[in-house]
Amino acid sequence: MKAIIQRKNFLFWASIVFAGIFSIWAVVSPTGMTGTLWNWLGLYNRTFSWFTMPMPVILLLICLYLAFGKFGKIKLGGADDEPEMSTFAWIGTLFTAGIGIGIVNFGVAEPLVHYLQSPVGIAGGVSPAQAAENGMKYSMFIWGLPAWAIYTMAGLVIGYFAYYKGKKFLPGEPIAAGFSDKAWAPSVAVLANIVAAGAAALTIAAHIAIGIFQIQNAVHSVSGFDISSATSSIALLIIMFFIYTFAAILPIQKGMASLGKINTIVAVILMIYVFMITNSTMIMRLVTENVRHAFLDVFPVAFTTIPFSDQTWFGSWPNTIMIWWFSWTPFLGIFIARISKGRTIRQIVTMSILVPTFFLIFWFSVFAGNGFWNTFFGDGKIIHFIANNPENVYLSFIMVLKELPGFQVTGPIFLLLVVIFLATATTSGMISLSIITSNGPENAPKTRVILWSVLTTMIAFSNIATGTLDGVKAVGVIIGIPFMLFVLLSISGMYRQMTLDYNHNLLVAAEKNQQLIDREHGKKASS
């Protein structure tokens, strides 16, 4: 059995079987699959929702301990290894790969949904002004420090073993290597690898399908053309296929780094433009408040479980989105590790957590701020749309742009942003998925990358054609539950190994120092 597991293509075929089972289930019985998986999620939320919200904050504390404690100066790689890309390209690549198209889908909708539905929103009898502030507070928690602590921790554990210990780029490797003295470790590691590979294929396919819907809506809003037909969907999929496949087969410092830089620049241009043509004073007040929400309200929100209120919102939004973040850790952790070679743990933690959080503070302040401005001082069109169209809340972002002057400029920029966000996140996922299913090399074979691009695009098309997107998304969320446990095991394994390595290095340094002292004493005695 062990020999079979160690074969190069074992993970590839295991992931094909895993993804195939759920893909077929989604097409044959989409309602049954979706209902079953969401029922499982509901059972988890009813039983363990108290655990999900504090979990990312615990990871945040661990990140801070690793960064600013005795392990902070450890470099992922050898002493002479240098980063493969500039700091700007690295941050841009990391950010756009981690956040994906999400900040476009929910940059306006997220705070407004909390404003409407949460027990600390108007549904709970809270005043509109306080409900708006609470909506921002929960958005900052969901998208800020806790989310990036999850991703950063996933990258650190894989990066440490891959670049500092010479192990494979596999999600289960920190468990197998960190608990090498335990009989159960290899089996758990293999399970983590199989689930990671299969879930990655489905999650990436769902991400592609969501992105295609967003592109279709963006084109319709910008130009008035309806491209929602099956033929148009196929054409868009083919175009996107060539973009993310070409970027994935290029060296990371060329393909992915270029997409990351372009994505960051376009996003910043759009944000600055909207900031300049709207109420900048209101936005800066929101920025100030959102800094407080992002950094000071993290612990109060993490340990608020509203036990005596209706749990519908709490289970379907904060808890479910946190689990969704964990479902991205298998392949995003590999990608973060892969692009962070030559950087210290302190650099990785500070830059990959703080920089994205500050960007999102401004992003939500600018775009959701204008959504709230329309709610309180405008015609209320956006908030009414969100209330009446819970399945299409992501369209609220372009509604904000259409309400503002200069849509002839912001509309095409928005469309470009959606395309690049989709390409960037898909490229990073494709690279990681190919690495996992090639048994963990630093760079996956190009043929494997192309093959997975074809397979995930086909799954995405089947989701679009059959309307089974909810089922595939449900798989992604459900997979996040075991990966919370896998991440905890990985961290424990890394800490065990880091402690051993640190003590060994101290011992080696002490022996070298003693040899120098003995040598000096020998020189003095001989003279």
Q: Portion of residues in helices? A: over 70%
Estimated structural class? mainly alpha
Query: What is the oligomeric state here?
Result: single chain
Rg calculated over all Cα atoms = 24 Å
Gross morphology: globular
CATH structural architecture = Up-down Bundle
Please explain how this structure is put together.
The protein is mainly alpha-helical and 527 residues long. The protein has a single domain (23-81, 92-513), classed as Amino acid/polyamine transporter I (Up-down Bundle). Helix content is 80%, strand content 0%. The chain contains 23 helices and no strands. 52% of the residues are buried. Mean pLDDT is 88; it is low at 1-5.
Q: How is the topology of this model organized?
A:
Layout: H1 2-5, H2 10-28, H3 30-52, H4 54-68, H5 87-99, H6 102-106, H7 109-117, H8 128-143, H9 145-164, H10 173-178, H11 185-223, H12 230-249, H13 255-277, H14 280-296, H15 298-302, H16 312-327, H17 329-339, H18 345-377, H19 381-388, H20 396-403, H21 407-437, H22 446-466, H23 469-526
Helix pairs in contact: 2-3, 2-11, 3-16, 3-23, 4-9, 4-18, 5-13, 5-17, 5-21, 7-8, 7-18, 8-9, 8-14, 8-18, 9-17, 9-18, 9-23, 11-21, 11-22, 11-23, 12-21, 12-22, 13-21, 14-18, 16-23, 17-21, 20-21, 21-22
